[in-house]
Every structure is written in structure tokens, then in C-alpha cells.
Amino acid sequence: xxxxFKFLRPYKLQIALVISLVFLQTLSELYLPxxxxxxxxxxxMRQDVGYIxxxxxxxLLVALGGTACSIAAAYFSSLTAMGFGKIxxxxxxxxxxxxxxxxFDKVGTPSLITRNTNDVTxxxxxxxxxxxxxxxxxxxxxxxxxxxxxxxxxxxWILALALPLLAALVLFIATKGLPIFRAVQTKIDRxxxxxxxxLEGIRVIRAFNRTNxxxxxxxxxxxxxxxxxxxxxxxxxxxxxxxxxxxxxVTVAIIWFGSLSVDHGTLEIGNMxxxxxxxxxxxxxxxxxxxxxxxxxxAQASADRINQVLAIEPEIRDPAVPRHAGGExxxxxxxxxxxxxxxxxxxxxxxxSFEARPGEFVAIIGGTGSGKSTxxxxxxxxxDVTSGAVLVDGVxxxxxxxxxxxxxxxxxxxxxxxxxxxxxxxxxxxxxxATEEEVRRAAEIAQALDFISDMKDGFDSEIxxxxxxxxxxxxxxxxxxxxxxxxxxxxxxxxxxSALDFKTDARLRAALKRETEGATVLIVxxxxxxxxxxxxxxxxxxxxxxxxxxxxxxxxxxxVYREIVSSQLSEExxx
Length: 575
Prior knowledge:
CATH architecture of the largest domain: Up-down Bundle
Distance between the termini: 70 Å
Number of domains: 2
Structural class: alpha/beta
CATH superfamily of the largest domain: ABC transporter type 1, transmembrane domain
Shape: elongated
Strand content: 5-15%
CATH topology of the largest domain: ABC transporter transmembrane region fold
CATH class of the largest domain: Mainly Alpha
Number of strands: 12
Strand order of the largest sheet: 6-9-10-3-11-12
Helix content: 55-70%
Radius of gyration: 35 Å
């Protein structure tokens, strides 16, 4: 957790102020029992009313000063802790944004969400407590022991017996609690995962009547988290009764042995009362320490999880001296590319080589799992090749700045993703400064203008998170419009027409051909009708290039392509 405190640097002055205020507050609390003993010994016992009023007014002033310091310390510590949380969340978010897809696969989306919300909240809470209690508890303990010893050394043996017992109890519970707190955070990840899957897959769950199964799955994870939380709370529940038992025994011992000393005339009543107050302050300081030991293990578990994320170095990074693309714009080349996913036994792509030039319409087709989507994901450098090279405009993508590379590409993924906001906002996601005319033009080419016009507010109609209030085909067309509005050098459509009917598909391809003239277009498709008119078709089979050519050429030379065509078209259509 100490590693994360470097993000507190902007709040150095506030932290110093909090420490000063807490120090003054603690001194005032330590001084009050001494004033009280003076009133009892020198005022009440001697019946000196003037002395009582004099010291009483001073006590009131000290108490008010301590209260003011306490309020101010609470305000500034809260301000600092909340600011710390803001910085930490922003730092995690910015770091995660640099991750490649491999890092997302490694950590997992639900876990990243938990780490940036629940874990940061735990650290915020403990930071606020640390700034107040970690300063005041040691001062109060040491100061209380010193002041109590000054009042009566003969009663100090009671504290000498009680304090080691309390310290051992706190240490034991903290040591046992830390592993369980780590397990709690992991189980919260699991809950987050199941809830997220249920919310995103609610249609599939209901369509297959799996509501009861998902309910039981959630209940199992919920019970697991509950049982673990009960275990840790049982452990923590042991602390308070044990501490209160020791504190009450200390109280009885002080009153018992103090009364004997008073009776023998070796101890004044005021000093006994002050000793009792200091003993309670010492016990309270240990109680505060116990609260810290309850909070710190959980916060430490959260800090470890956050540090794990911040320690991950993205595999895909910009080169120290990036090369700028030159020559022909929109030129894409795969040069003997082999790619293997992390942990996979076999490569997803093997020795893939082909070119796509500006003005060409290049289609990629193949069976399920042949590596089509993997191949196009290498162009914007979502993953790095294992061997070989992917070149854009004659430059290896690993030698280019990622921002410059992706500015050249209009990418439409296999799963069309929309964001909450208006239709126009989603289309402008491809080009933030797009004019209304450009947005309308992109929607028209994507064959989305008709259904947008039928919506209540047209381009100002709201899109729900994930695009759940539009159909699959409408979602795909809006995703295509988002790519079109930026007018890039290279268009990549990763099976982006699968939800469209044949008529809309044909109109869209015709409009695309006119709009993308001069740009490079790569289309991943399952339908033969989508790729038949391509300038070049790349056929993939089990990660290898099975053939490259036009539709007619491949019918004669590529057995894999003939099988795909015959499975979709009749003999008359093939002829």
C-alpha cells in the first residue's frame, strides 16, 4: 500500500495540516485529566471556588480548542482521501487504456472494474483513518503512559500487564485476517463477473430458459462470499469483547488498588481519577490501533490487487523513435505472418502473405476458426505478430505510433458496439468534429438513414448502453457509419454484414464501392454473395492461406473455396 501513497504528493500541505491538527487535538486530550486532577486536589478538596472557576475556564478553552482541531482534521483528511481516490482511479483507468487485448484477456474485465471501484474505495477509507488514528494513537499511548506514571508509579504495573495482552490480541487477529480479506476481494470479482454476464446475456438466458440455473449460479457465488465474510467478521468480532474484558478488568484493578492507596494516604483522589482517565486513553489508543488493524489488512489486499494492475507493462507500446508512413497511402501487406495467442498450443495463423492496395476491395473468407478476425486484428495492432511483419504504407506497424496507425483505419468489429448517447454521438465517435452533413452522409451510405428517420428524435434519439434498444442489423449499420464518417485510408469490416438481409447487404456494398473509391477495403465475411465481386479473395483454412484470387479463379484452383461456395449457392447460381 505504501507504493500507492506516491499519488498523495499533490496533497502534501493538507497532510501536514492534518498531522498538526491531530497532534494538537491529542495534546489537548492528554492535558485535560491533569487539569481535572488539579481541580479535585486543589479546588474541591480545599473548597477553593476561585481556583475551580479559574482552572475550569481553562479546561473549557482546552476542550473547545481540541474539538475545533478534531473537526478541522476530519474535514481535511476527508478532502485528502477523496482526492487520493480520484487520482488513483484516474491513474488505473489511464494505465488500463494502454493495455493490449492480451492484458485484458489476462486480468479480466470484471476484475478490472472491481479494482477501480471497490478496491479504491477500501484504500480511500483506510487513508482517511490512517491520517487521524495513526498519528493520534501512538501519541496518546506514549503520552498516556508517561502521564499516568507521573501520577502514580505504583499503579503502573496494571498497565504493564494489560498492554502486552492487548497488543498480542491485535497482532493475532490482524495476521489471521489478511489472507481472508484477500479471498473476499477475489470472491467479489466472481460476483461481479456473474452479475455482468447475466445483465449482458439476459436475452440468451431467457431464450434458453436458464433463469433458474443462473439464479443458482449466483446464489452459489453469493453464499461463498457470504461464508468467507462471516469467517472474517467472526474473527473481528472476537476482538471487541476481548478488548472490553481487558479494559474492564483494568478499570476494576485501578479502582481497587487506587482506593487502597487513597485509604493509606499515599495517593490523592484527583491523581487516582487522572490515572484512571489516562488508562482509558491508553486503552482507547489500542482500540484505535485495532480498528486500523481491521481496516489495513483489507486495504492491503486491495492495494496489492491495484499494484498488480499498475505493474503490468503493456506488451504493445510505441517505439522510442516511431517511423512515419510514406509512399502510397492505404497499402497493406502481410509478409509471412505467423501469430499464436498467449498460452495456445498451436498458432492461429501460419505463414500468411498477401497484399491489399489502394482502390482494391479485398475479401477474407474461410470456415469458423480459420483465423479471419485474428488476421484483421493484427492490422490496427490489437495484437503483435509472433513472426513475420504486417506493413501499412510500407512501414512495419510495430515501428509506427499507435495513434498514427489507427488514424489511418476505419474499423468495424465483429460485434457492433454502441455507447450511451444519441445516434449522432455514436456516429461522431469516429470523427469528433464531423458536421451534421457528414453524419447524415455516413448514415445514408451505411443504409441507416431510413430507420434513423423513423426514430422519435431522428439523429438526436437516445441509444441505450450497449445499443440494447436497436436491432442487431441497426447496430451494425450505425457501427459502419461510425467508420465511414472519418474517411480513412483503410476500411476493415470484420463480418459486419452478418445481421443484414441480402437486399440491404447488396445496397450497402454498392454504396461502399462508390464511397471508398481510392481507399483500401478489407472485408471479412461468411457469405459468398458478399465477396463474389471482390478484386481479390483470400481463403483461409486452419490459419493458412488456402488460395488467393478472384471468385472465378478460386472456383477453378481452390478446393476449400469450392466447398464454401457449394454449401451456400445452388449449381445455377455458381454457373
